[in-house]
Amino acid sequence: MNNQSNAMPESFQAQSAAPGALPPTRPLYWSVRRELWENRFVYVAPFSVAGVFLFGYLISVGHLPARIRELSSVVPEHFQAAILKPYDIAAAFMMGTYILVTLFYCADALHSERRDRSILFWKSLPVSDLTTVLAKASIPFVILPLLIFGITLVLQFVILLLSSAVLLGSGLSVASLWTHLPVLQMSLLLLYHIVTAHALWPAPVYCWLILVSSWARRAVLLWAAIPVLAIAGVEMIAFRTSHFATLIGHRLIGGGPVDATGPGMFPTDPMTHITPAAFLGSPGLWIGLALAVAFLVLAVRLRRYQGPI
Amino acid sequence: MACIEARGLRKAFGKTIALDGIDLRVEEGRILGLVGPNGAGKTTALNAILGLTPYEGELRVLGRDPWAERDHLMRDVSFIADVAVLPRWMRVSQALEYVAGVHPRFDRAKAEAFLTRTSIRPDSKVRELSKGMVTQLHLALVMAIDARLLVLDEPTLGLDILFRKQFYDSLLNDYFDRTRTIMVTTHQVDEIQDVLTDVMFIDRGRIVFSSSMEEFESRYVEVIVNPENVAAARALKPIYERQSLGRTILLFDSVDRQQLKPLGELRVPGIADLFVALIGDHCAAAGAAR
């Protein structure tokens, strides 16, 4: 909240310097701020999940020395896999939180302001529909990825410190733990995974929800799901296949055009390769992004016509 | 320069015609009251002026096309489109910060000074405020914006008389400076009769009456007729007659005051009385038909 007090004198300087004109980024900045004021769950949920996970880990960490002793006898690959497990699970929890928070946020994005009639207040200020929609889209595509990345890193670091402390306390060497943990690789891979698998790849799903939230009078998630269910249903009856349902599920859970989701696909698994060329070269990605942009453009247009419901 | 200028302004929702070819011109520095029965098209007209709804016909607000240039227009136009549209989750301090952040003509110190005269605390959430306090907060925000046009759509709906009076007093004393233009709709039109410089009646999507208040006061006169003069007074063709506390009250349009003076007590009619005289009959008929 410190930047709150810092931001104020700035705003007055800007006003006295140039009345009548503001840099175009200022309405965007304040629109993002208002999203975070209104939707506190965007940051409360990841922090809470991290806290709960840490609490669980604190309970289980007592067994760590015994486990390390037991594992010392097995093959190094298994040892490394066992060492990495809590970090993978931590990351998986945070990714799940990202997906859930994003789905709920997007489904409410352009709906809540119509529901509580506050759209009439927002529209009374010189903030364009484009700025508003961009500010809302920045939550799943900018704010949450950064937030999730930061929290996951800190969480993994705290787990590392905790386990080191416990090992040292029981007279074991931490060397094996630290040498088997590719810290830099892990964090790079984490960032890559968040951006590709959870921000860019499912972008059309998030933007579809934002679009439906600008149109539906109620039950946004239901209206968003109905066309998907209808297409999948028709496909299943007519062709006895389920490509569409698989496609949507694949988009939603993350993954990417190259790697199939499944066990061993946890973001910290060093066996997973960072393959940006394959990712960027995949037509599926670009088709998805084009759809996402189209959905957002439609949402901007729709908001222009929308009033309170 | 005209603040608002409309020619043939039309808006239809499906088969319902909300605005049926309105022509109007509002000069800068006026306080216009827009009066009409429910569903007459008041809010639609205001929405068109504010760029909230597309329309047919020609409309310029401060020289701009409100639908095409709404984002720009909102730097010079403020509005309270309805009571209680401030987001309920917002804190008072956040509202001030946000408006200061996005509005180039917002004077935060002015809004804070206004709020210190109320019992609104900066850390309160809007949901914790009473209806009257929410309106005060909204007014504080709007009055601190150096706008050229302020549009108020039923700004005091559901407030008690003290808040309503305070609302218009603040507006006149702290805000209006004769260069700004204010457009207001309200059902409590008699309360703001002294505030207005112009009045306009809208009915079934058309402007049926438009006048400055000076013209209104010189043209219309109401006579509380002495019982023995009722027949004589009726001969002068009043446009409306009503009974109140056993007295007959007649409303005259452009009748010489010297002629009326001997018949009873003369006074300026209320806008509401003229409204009933001009529009009330068919409304009552429509009501009965329903």
Ends of chain B: how far apart?
44 Å
Spatial shape of chain A = globular
Structural class of chain B: alpha/beta
Beta-strand residue fraction of chain B: 25-35%
Low-confidence stretches of chain B: 285-290
Number of strands of chain B: 13
Helix share bin of chain B: 25-40%
**What order do the strands of the largest sheet of chain B run in, or round the barrel if closed?**
5-6-7-3-8-9
Q: What report would you give on this structure?
A:
The complex is a heterodimer of chains A (309) and B (290). Chain A is an all-alpha fold. Chain A has helices spanning 2-17, 25-38, 41-60, 64-71, 76-108, 112-115, 119-122, 129-169, 175-179, 183-200, 203-215, 220-239, 243-253, 276-280, 283-305. In chain A, α3 (41-60) packs antiparallel against α5 and α8 crosses α11 (203-215). The model of chain A is unreliable at 1-19 and 258-271 (pLDDT under 50). With 290 residues, chain B is of the alpha/beta class. Helix content of chain B is 33%, strand content 29%. Chain B is built from 10 helices and 13 strands. In chain B, the strands form 3 sheets. In chain B, strands 5-6-7-3-8-9 form a 6-stranded mixed β-sheet, sandwiched between helices. In chain B, strands 11-12-10-13 form a 4-stranded antiparallel β-sheet. Residues 285-290 of chain B have low confidence and may be disordered. The A-B interface holds A 4, 7-8, 11-12, 15, 18-22, 26-27, 29-31, 33-34, 37-38, 113, 116-121, 123-128, 304-305, 307-308 and B 47, 50, 52-54, 70-72, 74-75, 78-82, 84-91, 94, 97-106, 108, 138.
